[in-house]
Amino acid sequence: MADINVDVLVIGAGPTGLGAAKRLNHINGPSWLIVDANDKAGGLASTDVTPEGFLYDVGGHVIFSHYKYFDDCLDEALPKADDWYTHQRISYVRYKGLWVPYPFQNNISMLPDEDKVKCVEGMIDAALEHRVANTKPKDFDEWILRNCGEGVANIFMRPYNYKVWAVPTTRMQCEWLGERVAAPNVKLVTRNVILNKTAGNWGPNATFRFPARDGTGGIWIAVSNTLPEKNKRYGKHGEVTKVDAEKKIVTLGDGTTVKYGKLINTMAVDHLVEKMGNQELVSLSKGLYYSSTHVIGVGIRGERPERIGDKCWLYFPEDNCPFYRATIFSNYSPYNQPEAGAKLPTLYKADGSKASSDEAKEGPYWSIMLEVSQSTVKPVDEENLLKDCIQGLINTEMIKPEDEIVSTYHRKFDHGYPTPSLEREGVLKELLPKLQDMDIWSRGRFGSWRYEVGNQDHSFMLGVEAVDNIVTGAVELTLNYPDFVNGRQNTERRLAQSFVFGVKEDQSIPARSALPN
């Protein structure tokens, strides 16, 4: 006999697990429990706070949405107008000392003349070849060449994507691209080059929301707080140590056993199969690749410089800095850093020299969050990474050598990006159905390993749709048809909808339903 018996067990309280739990609580049908090894909800969408009071997310997270149900749940958790800030994306690529508006491939009008010629010639050649091509690109590199041409490929797309993914573009497939990478319009680009104009506002995150307080992690703590306490086990007594798929029993860190009917797993699927001890699936999961992410935070004393202005996030394809992206995190919310009156000592100046005084002084303060990828193909000098990143900020003129640094942050996330490798689909099309045959729905950024549906809204809805699939057999559109959900407003589910299971119409109290086998 297990200590706890539930119809549905949810492993992980990140966006996907909370989406599943939210839906289970909403429909009020099967019994359920959500467990997580961390003391607070959020998973890979959490927020850390430094001792000095600077906030840093687990990488660059902002809120934009393809789903009304996701919006409803966030608005229920953080309902007040002053819970949020709304921003227009102001994003650039740093190249040869210039700030080129994002997306780079649509704004080559901003480049030096020699580079403009390379890029336009490459695009024309690519367009001519593309017209007669009768096969799909075999990998991401070929997609880049066909859509952007050799010039843009060599100047930006290849070096930047290597810095992000930590693998060459020749080792990545291109099924994932969709709305993630802008394919340039050759006529528009040529017109803008001649007229010296820029193009902007591409992509779904041109406008985005960010929470006023507690960073992105605060959103998911607030969503978790809308769920009943009796259905949550966080911390050591929520840590999964073993999954017995045959007996449908999960063992937790404190020895508690949970018997389940169906399991929604949101931990990394390679970790799941190890906890299952299933060697066939462990071997299969070895075909999935990922990169690690280092998040670096730098808190600086002084007014935000005019050269930084209201920029949101910035891309760095060149080798004069280790980071691929910088987010001006202090621009998202005034609560992301200490208030100006807080007194902090200077740790050191940006060039590494000692401060003139150890005395704590008032601000104001601003902050930058950096992301660096790592893999077996792209190693990183972890011990010196913070120092190298600060030097990179000087090299790219983000900060000056004499700037006073009052706070630093460095955290490595082993599973950072699920790589859309050439082998990925072959593995997933075998692995996920095998798990589902065992009544295990593995979903989420690393649970189902599909980066193209790895944003917060997608991740949340992967959990919601897994529940609907379990309870009613509904098709999981986000998992199986990413381009479909990304190309429309998904309004079918709303939090205001009510559900009644196993009762006649004149009965007011819903009864628990038995899950379908």
Describe this structure in words.
Strand 1 (4-11), helix 1 (15-27) and strand 2 form a beta-alpha-beta unit. The chain is an alpha/beta fold and 517 residues long. It has helices spanning 15-27, 68-77, 113-132, 140-165, 186-195, 215-225, 269-276, 279-285, 385-395, 424-437, 456-472, 477-480, 482-486; strands at residues 4-11, 32-36, 47-49, 55-57, 84-88, 91-95, 98-101, 207-211, 232-234, 240-244, 249-252, 257-265, 290-301, 313-315, 325-327, 348-349, 365-374, 404-418, 440-442. The two termini are 21 Å apart. The longest helix has 26 residues, at 140-165. GO terms for molecular function: oxidoreductase activity. It comes from Neurospora hispaniola. Residues 16-276 form the Amine oxidase domain. This is FAD/NAD(P)-binding domain-containing protein. InterPro entries: Amino_oxidase (IPR002937), FAD/NAD-bd_sf (IPR036188).
Entry keywords:
517 residues, alpha/beta, eight-stranded mixed sheet, seven-stranded mixed sheet, 13 helices, 19 strands, Amino_oxidase, oxidoreductase activity, FAD/NAD(P)-binding domain-containing protein, FAD/NAD-bd_sf
Summarize, please.
The chain has 13 helices and 19 strands. It has helices at 15-27, 68-77, 113-132, 140-165, 186-195, 215-225, 269-276, 279-285, 385-395, 424-437, 456-472, 477-480, 482-486; strands at 4-11, 32-36, 47-49, 55-57, 84-88, 91-95, 98-101, 207-211, 232-234, 240-244, 249-252, 257-265, 290-301, 313-315, 325-327, 348-349, 365-374, 404-418, 440-442. It has an 8-stranded mixed sheet. Strands 1, 2, 9, 10, 11, 12 and 19 form a 7-stranded mixed sheet that branches.
